[in-house]
Amino acid sequence: MLKRKLSILKMDEIKFMTRLLDVAITLDQQEEYTALRECGILGIPTICSVPANVDVIASIQLILIKLISTIF
Questions:
Q1: Domain count within the chain
Q2: Which residue range forms the structural domain that includes residue 34?
Q3: Could you give a GO molecular-function term held by this entry (predicted)?
Q4: Which residues lie closer than 8 Å to 2 by C-beta, 6 or more apart?
Q5: I need a labelling partner for 72 at 20 to 30 A (CA). Which of 9, 52, 64, 65 fits?
């Protein structure tokens, strides 16, 4: 079943992974639409940041801090 799902994907980064991701983090939902759709097909949870007029590095740091605090 998983091989069949992988065979229909368009993104080689996801198509040829040796194991599935635990979670995928994207910074721009519109730009990463294909990746988000394919993660959905495979059942990989995603975290999406809404683009805004903020510093990209600060946005990534905030997401990772929240993610780490949730895990630990």
A1: 1
A2: 2-71
A3: structural constituent of ribosome
A4: 42
A5: 52
Burial of 71 (0-12, 13-18, 19+ CB in 10 A): exposed
H-assigned helices in the chain:
2-7, 12-15, 33-42, 56-71
- Check: CB of residue 1 under 8 Å from CB of residue 39: no
Given a contact cutoff of 8 angstroms between Cβ atoms, the answer to whether 47 and 26 are in contact is: yes
Q: Which pLDDT does position 39 carry in this prediction?
A: 86
Torsion of CA 54, 57, 61, 63, to 10 degrees: 60
Q: Global pTM?
A: 0.61
